[in-house]
Amino acid sequence: MVEIEGFDQKVSSASTVANAFIVQSLVAMTVDKLVKMGVEPEIWASANVKGGTENNRKFRETYRGRIYHLSFY
C-alpha cells in the first residue's frame, strides 16, 4: 500500500500484484504441462512482442465467429 501525503486512503494494493503473479504462474504451469503432454496450446501473444500480431492472426480467423470483439479486427 502506498500512502499519499494529504490523502487519507492508501492506494496501490499489494494484493493486485500478488494475484497477478499467481494467475500468470498458473498460466505458465498449465502451458508447461500441456507441452509435456504433446499438446501445442493456443496462446494469444501481446502485440508488444515481436511476432505477436502475426501469431494472433490465425486465432482471429479461427475464433472470429465465437468471440464478438474479434469481429472488429
Describe the secondary structure blueprint for this structure.
Blueprint: H1 14-36, H2 52-63
Molecular structure report:
This protein is mostly helical and 73 residues long. It has two domains: 41 residues, no CATH class; 32 residues, no CATH class. 48% of the residues lie in helices and 0% in strands. The chain is built from two helices and no strands. The chain is extended and about 50 Å long. The N and C termini lie far apart (38 Å). The model has no long low-confidence stretch (mean pLDDT 90).
Structure, briefly:
With 73 residues, the protein is mainly α. It is 48% helix and 0% strand.
The end-to-end distance, rounded to whole angstroms, is 38 Å
- The total count of strands amounts to 0
Structural class: mainly alpha
Strand content: under 5%
How much is the radius of gyration in Å? 18 Å
Biggest sheet statistics:
none
Number of domain modules: 2
Number of helices: 2
- Rough shape? extended
The succession of helices and strands, N to C, reads HH
* Parts with pLDDT < 50 across at least 5 consecutive residues: none
Helix share, percent: 40-55%
Calculate the mean pLDDT score and round it. 90
